[in-house]
Amino acid sequence: MDKEEKYFLNAINQTRIIRLCKQKLATFGTTNLKYFLLTKPSYEEMQSNKEETVIRHGTVKAEQPKIVTPQYMLNLDGFSKDARSFMEELAQNIGSNAPGILYQYKNDPSGMEIVSGKLLDVSMRIAEDLDKKDNNNTVVLTGLDSLWDVCLMKFIYEYTAASLTSNVNELNAMELLTPSPSTGVPQGAMQKIEQLFFQVSKGLDPGELKKELDRWGLFEHYQDRFLKLFKK
Question: Is residue 182 in some structural domain?
């Protein structure tokens, strides 16, 4: 393990959840999760006369979980050569059209303050205040100041993992992960394509629909219908 790996591992190991949010990750909608992430300031070692705590807060927006397959992932941009090799191996082992779920997040930081007080004391006060307000969608956690966003990602990973089973069960209950008899693509993806056709008829850029069809390898299947969108 090199120095950088040890540095990241240290950040992960120092991440502590002081207050869990009660809100679950929605299967059929967007989840807005607020957070308070507290750390000891990086400069603390240079001053011993008083203790301070850095408070970062913001919102993590979790988009509606997206149904994908290994083959679909191979057609997405932005993946490294190693990531693509992994997806190719996965496709060989479990099947190119085996359904899975892709979670996408966006962090929207809203502010940062430095306050007097010990890290644990300040974090507990914030947690108690949220409990009094019966706030269900805010998490309080502590971590390492220099890698605070890594600490936040560790929580997001665990939060997602805790929601995965219920998300899959809900999708299965509606047969959205079941392959379509006509294309072999999950029914949920077919419904998404139908939504895009409707949205294009209402003014959405047809390029968005074309990209989705290409990612699923379905353009030829829908080609005639797609071209009709351009006929008056």
Answer: yes
Does one domain contain both 78 and 185?
A: yes
Q: By 3-state DSSP, what share of the chain in percent is helix, strand and coil, each rounded to 5?
A: 50, 20, 30
Residue 52 DSSP label: E
In a domain, 232, yes or no: no
Kindly give the confidence (pLDDT) of every residue in the chain, 232 residues in length, as a single tens digit, with 9 standing for 90 and above: 667 677 778 888 889 999 998 888 999 999 999 999 999 998 765 555 678 999 999 999 999 999 999 889 888 877 778 878 888 888 888 888 889 999 999 999 999 999 999 999 999 999 999 999 999 999 999 999 989 999 999 999 999 999 999 999 999 999 999 999 999 999 999 999 999 999 999 999 999 999 999 999 999 999 999 999 987 5
Same domain flag for 108 and 78: no
Domain count, the chain: 2
The residue range of the domain holding 132 is: 3-65+103-167
Global pTM? Answer: 0.81
Q: Which of 54, 49, 50, 93 is nearest to 70 (CA)?
A: 93
Q: Torsion angle of alpha carbons 210, 215, 216, 222, nearest 10°?
A: 20
Nearest to 123 by CA among 15, 25, 10, 9: 15
Nearest CA to 160 out of 213, 207, 101 is that of 101
The beta-carbon contacts of 47-50 under 8 Å, at least 24 apart in sequence, are: 50/116
